[in-house]
Amino acid sequence: MMLKDPSCPASLSGALAERLSKSGLRVSVRIQRSPVRDARGEIIGIVERSQALAPGSSCSVAEAHLRLLVEQIPLFFWTTDLQLRVTSHWGRTASLAKSFPRYPVGQTIYQYLRCRDDGEPPAKQHFLALHGVSSRVEYSSRNRRYDLSIGPYLHPQGKIIGCIGMALDITESRKTEDEIRFRASHDGLTGLANYREFFESLEQEVRRVERTRQPFALLLLDLDDLKAINDRLGHLTGNRALNRLARVMKEQCRTTDLAARYGGDEFAILLLDADGERAQNVAQRISACLRSQNDSPPLSVSTGYSVYLNDGLSATELLEAADKRLYQSKKSRHSCAPNPDNQHTESART
Amino acid sequence: MSVQPNAEFLLKSFLSNTDEAVVGFDLDGAIFLWNQAAAELYGFSQPEIIGPTR
User: Fold this and answer.
1) CA atoms A227, A230, A232, A237: torsion sign
2) pTM value?
3) Which residue in A222, A224, A265, A311 is the catalytic one?
4) Which residues of chain A does B22 touch, with a Cβ-Cβ cutoff of 8 Å?
5) What are the distances in angstroms from CA A153 to CA A90, A109, A122, A161, A212?
6) Do residue A6 and residue B29 have CB atoms under 8 angstroms apart?
7) Do B23 and B5 meet the contact criterion of CB atoms below 8 Å apart?
8) Which residues lie below 8 Å from residue A82, measured CB to CB, with a gap of 6+?
């Protein structure tokens, strides 16, 4: 417990100390200590007198207990007066000590929530609350994200006397949500967008282009001979081959383009604000990049593109058109080089 | 001549009426004195600290 500290000096006057109370709350006290002597003058004990320092820390046991319970919730509350000064503060201050002041009573909400502009959240919501409007807003401060609810603080007779605010720390859950969203929309092996994400983006682009009339192109890529690589060199090598292509695709894309792994060995790129020429350019650059790599096995791709309006008006039409060109390029490749499977894998083995 | 209250009574009433937390402990650190203000300040009642009978 707190006072059983035999190393403490027997005489002490006006020293400051922090003690733990039963409710777990720290109590700041000023201490006077004097020795207790027996009839012969030998010290047999110590008497200590202490008084609480901060007015806030001398709260009643019931309030301290309630505060302790409230602190178990990842949540904090505050009330303000009509001038938006904090009049009370409840909740998990310990974990937020770095981003929020520890003793905020008397501060303005600008200091308390580290905001500036009256027209921006969360100050704006406080002004709304003073007019009787409750609102909710997400707010970021110092790398943490909070879900704020701010409403009017009503006197029992119904008059607004300030605001009541509540903040829930959603940093972690937001991170998890983002990760789940990423995993649901991306391919686990290559990190590119997956089929669904790609198809949704394509449909979205089709809808958008109906208004903007800015053409876009679609490029399908097929990693040649993946099956042969898998069969002869193992699936790990096959996976590495897929990753190599994915990396090259990312390098050759603009940030506004969307690269996706469309299926097993099929990839696709949505090229915004692009025509057939740019699509062919990108396809050639990717092929050239793969050719220049020294890694084994050497990789090559077959490509097919389609352009909005010329080749179709819907996502399905565009995909079909691109697929047709892809098939043709595959067929011509096969007729040019009769047995590329063996060439590739043989060169990889030597 | 007025009545002299006995010293123990005087001390006890002083201890329970002061708003200073007064705590006494022996050289082993065992607490033998714990007044009303100490109970209020630290949240522990006298029986919790000293034991039910002393």
Assistant:
1) positive
2) 0.52
3) A265
4) 47-49
5) 15, 15, 16, 6, 48
6) yes
7) no
8) A130, A160, A161, A162
**Structure tokens of A199?**
């198809």
The span from the first CA to the last CA of chain B, in angstroms, equals: 36
Q: Where are the alpha helices (DSSP H) in A43-194?
A: 61-70, 109-112, 123-130, 171-185
Q: Is A265 a catalytic residue?
A: yes
Q: Is A306 exposed, middle or buried (0-12, 13-18, 19+ CB in 10 A)?
A: buried
Strands B21-26 and A258-261: unpaired
Q: Which residue has tokens 């399905």?
A: A316
Tell me the DSSP string of A40-74.
Answer: TS-EEEEEEEEEE-SGGGG--HHHHHHHHHHTTSS
CB within 8 Å of B45: residues ≥ 6 apart? B39
Chain A residues in contact with B40 by the CB 8 A cut-off are 61
Nearest CA in chain B to A6: B29
Which helix (H) or strand (E) element contains residue A237?
A: helix A235-252
Residues in chain B, how many? 54
Sign of CA dihedral A137, A161, A83, A97: negative
Degrees (nearest 5) of the Cα angle A260, A262, A263? 140
With 0-12 / 13-18 / 19 or more C-beta atoms within 10 angstroms meaning exposed / middle / buried, residue A97 is exposed
pLDDT truncated to tens, each residue of chain A (350 aa)? Answer: 344 454 556 677 777 777 777 776 777 788 888 888 888 988 888 898 888 876 554 556 677 778 778 878 778 888 888 989 888 888 765 344 455 556 677 778 888 888 888 888 889 999 999 999 999 999 887 788 889 999 999 888 888 989 999 988 888 888 999 899 999 999 999 999 999 999 999 999 999 888 887 889 999 999 999 999 999 999 999 999 999 999 999 999 888 899 999 888 999 999 998 888 999 999 999 999 999 988 888 999 999 999 998 888 888 999 999 999 999 988 877 665 544 444 443 333 33
Sheet bearing B31-34, strands edge to edge: A12-20, A26-37, A43-52, B21-26, B31-34
Q: Which of A298, A304, A306, A299 is nearest to A329 (CA)?
A: A304
